[in-house]
Amino acid sequence: MEKRDPLGKGLQAILKDIDEKVAVRLVPVERIIPNPNQPRISFDEEGLIGLAQSIKEKGLLQPLIVRKKGGDYELIAGERRLRASIMAGLKEVPVLIREADERESLEIGLIENLQREDLNPLEVANIYRRFVEELGYTHEELARKIGVERSSVTNTLRLLKLPEWIKEKIREGKLSSGHARTLLSIKDEKEQRRFVEKVLKEKSSVRELEREVRKKSERNVEFATIEEHLSRYLKTKVQITFKKNRGKIIIEFFSKDDLSRLLELLSPSRV
Q: How far apart, in Å, do the first and last CA atoms of the chain sit?
């Protein structure tokens, strides 16, 4: 069975409007200037070395995409390949010259970065964010553009709402996107921390974490129902806290008379 690209359409499919008849030409590397809107911030040094070795042996198989900028060429897509080519000692690299404005240049660069195999979920989310905030895409439009479900775009963007310490665990590869999406359903950060510690300690799968969170949610609903019944009966605010099979019932009163009223309601003769 053919393996499906989890990011949907490939770069070539998305850039199908590039004229295939345009000849590839060789351009000196010193005449290629960086893209100031380069979407990619970090480059894995070990990966670059590996790519450079491959280029030494086989050459640069995929041309860069550039646009004319004065007498030089501004890079649109392929910065990783350009860096590796320079490391490999190439003096010239194959390029496709495209007429593109600032918007189109950014769009192509973002799309190319989505094709990386080493993207973590937050890098994908940040690329989606740039499509939405800088290029004005709706979630539906972006989903059609890259060939994924709209819900996938929305759920991925939601990861950016997580606390920074959880994001760091995702970047480190200690939490998956599935873990992260489940943690989003927990509003209390202390509870999030407790569940994260449990996942890291027990190496819980996403399914196991979902079950634990669901149990917690069901328990909260049960206690909320009890709180509501007690509050209605006592005509005051009641709060139940529960942890590790122990808990407290907190009943508020607002005066000595109010306390007397509550004591009367809770006396054995009334129960």
A: 68
Would you give the DSSP letter of residue 29? G
Higher-pLDDT residue of 128 and 229 is 128
Q: Give the residue extent of every domain in the chain.
A: 1-118, 120-161
Neighbouring-strand partners of residue 247: 242
The predicted-structure confidence for 96-141, as pLDDT tens digits, reads as follows 888 878 888 888 878 877 877 677 899 899 999 999 998 999 999 9
What are the two backbone dihedrals, phi and then psi, of residue 186, each rounded to the nearest 5 degrees? -100, 120
Averaged pLDDT for residues 143-150: 89
pLDDT band at 77 (very low <50, low <70, confident <90, very high): confident
Contact yes or no for 191/198 (Cβ under 8 A): no
| 78 CB-near residues (< 8 Å, 6+ apart) | 62, 63, 64, 65, 112
Q: Extract the tokens encoding 4.
A: 């499906």
- The DSSP secondary structure of 66-125, one letter per residue, reads EEEETTEEEEEE-HHHHHHHHHTT-SEEEEEE----HHHHHHHHHHHHHT-TT--HHHHH
Q: How far, in Å, CA of 190 to CA of 230, rounded?
A: 27
Report the run of H or E that residue 36 belongs to, with start and end: none
For domain 1-118, the CATH architecture is Alpha-Beta Complex (3.90)
Longest dimension (CA), the chain: 96
Q: What is the pLDDT of residues 205-216, one digit of tens each?
A: 989 988 888 777
Distance of alpha carbon 19 from alpha carbon 204, whole angstroms? 49
The residues annotated with a catalytic role in the active site are 79
